[in-house]
Design a protein that fits this description.
By secondary structure, this protein is α+β, with helices and mostly antiparallel strands. It is built from 5 helices and 4 strands. It has helices at 2-14, 66-98, 103-147, 154-199, 203-211; strands at 21-27, 30-34, 46-50, 56-60. Strands 2-1-3-4 form a 4-stranded antiparallel sheet, with no helix packed on it. A hairpin with a 2-residue loop joins strand 1 (21-27) and strand 2 (30-34). Helix 3 (103-147) runs antiparallel to helix 4. The chain starts with a helix and ends in an 8-residue tail after the last helix. The model is unreliable at 1-8 and 205-219 (pLDDT under 50).
C-alpha cells in the first residue's frame, strides 16, 4: 500500500498536461495574443510564448502567398540555370586555355588587350589636360572682362559651360578606362594561375624563362 502511495506522485507527473502557451501575431497593425490560434491567423507570422514564464519558446514565419511561392520557384530555377551556365563557362574556359601552346602564346593575346586599354587611358588623360587648360583660359578671359568693367558675352559664357561639360565627361571616361585597366590586371593574374594549374607549369621556372633574353650578337 505504501508503495502505491509513493508511486502516485510520479504517475501524476507523467500524466501532467503539457505547459500552456500563448500565440502572438499582428492583426490590423495591432499585436494580438491568445491561448488559442483562430483559423484566420493560421497563415500569419506568430510567436509562441510560455504562459508560465512569459518567455518566447518558438515562432512560425508567415505562410507565402501563391505569387510568392511562384516567385520562389522561379528564383530556384534561375539559380540552377546560373550554376549550369557557370559550369559551362568553366569548361569552355578550360578548353580555351588548354588550346594555347605555352604562356608566351597566351600573353600575346593579353598584350593586345593591354595595348588597347593603355591607349584609351593615355588619350583620355591627354584630352582631360587639354580641356582643363582650355577651360582655365576661358575663365581667365571672363575674369579679365569683369575686372575691366565689361560684361561677359553670352558666347563666352556658353563656351565655358560647354567646355566644363566636356571636361566632366572626359574625366568620367578616363576613370572608366583606368578601372578597366586595373580589372584587366586582376583578370590576367587569375587566368595565368588557372593556366599554370591546368598545364602543371612551375611558375618560378616560367617567370625565369620569360625574363631571359638572348644576348646581342656582335659582328
Amino acid at each position: 500500500m505504501l508503495a502505491l502511495v509513493l508511486l502516485a506522485p510520479t504517475a501524476l507527473a507523467q500524466d501532467k498536461a503539457p505547459a500552456k502557451k500563448l500565440f502572438c501575431w499582428q492583426e490590423k497593425g495591432q499585436r494580438v495574443c491568445s491561448d488559442a490560434l483562430p483559423a484566420e491567423a493560421v497563415n500569419a507570422a506568430r510567436e509562441e510564448i510560455s504562459a508560465t514564464s512569459g518567455l518566447r519558446t518558438g515562432g512560425v514565419e508567415r505562410a507565402m502567398t501563391e505569387d510568392e511561392r511562384s516567385q520562389a520557384a522561379i528564383e530556384v530555377q534561375q539559380r540552377q540555370m546560373d550554376a549550369a551556365a557557370a559550369e559551362t563557362r568553366r569548361r569552355t574556359d578550360a578548353a580555351m586555355l588548354l588550346s594555347y601552346r605555352d604562356e608566351n602564346d597566351l600573353r600575346r593575346v593579353f598584350n593586345e588587350r593591354i595595348a588597347i586599354v593603355d591607349n584609351n587611358v593615355r588619350t583620355a588623360s591627354y584630352n582631360t589636360v587639354s580641356l582643363r587648360e582650355g577651360l582655365v583660359s576661358l575663365l581667365q578671359t571672363a575674369g579679365n572682362q569683369e575686372l575691366a568693367g565689361r560684361p561677359v558675352t553670352a558666347e563666352l559664357a556658353a563656351n565655358i559651360r560647354q567646355r566644363h561639360a566636356e571636361l566632366v565627361r572626359t574625366r568620367r571616361l578616363q576613370h572608366s578606362f583606368e578601372t578597366q585597366r586595373a580589372e584587366l590586371d586582376v583578370e590576367i593574374t587569375d587566368i595565368m594561375q588557372r593556366y599554370r594549374a591546368m598545364k602543371g607549369t612551375n611558375p618560378d621556372a616560367v617567370e625565369e624563362a620569360a625574363g631571359q633574353t638572348p644576348a646581342p650578337t656582335r659582328n
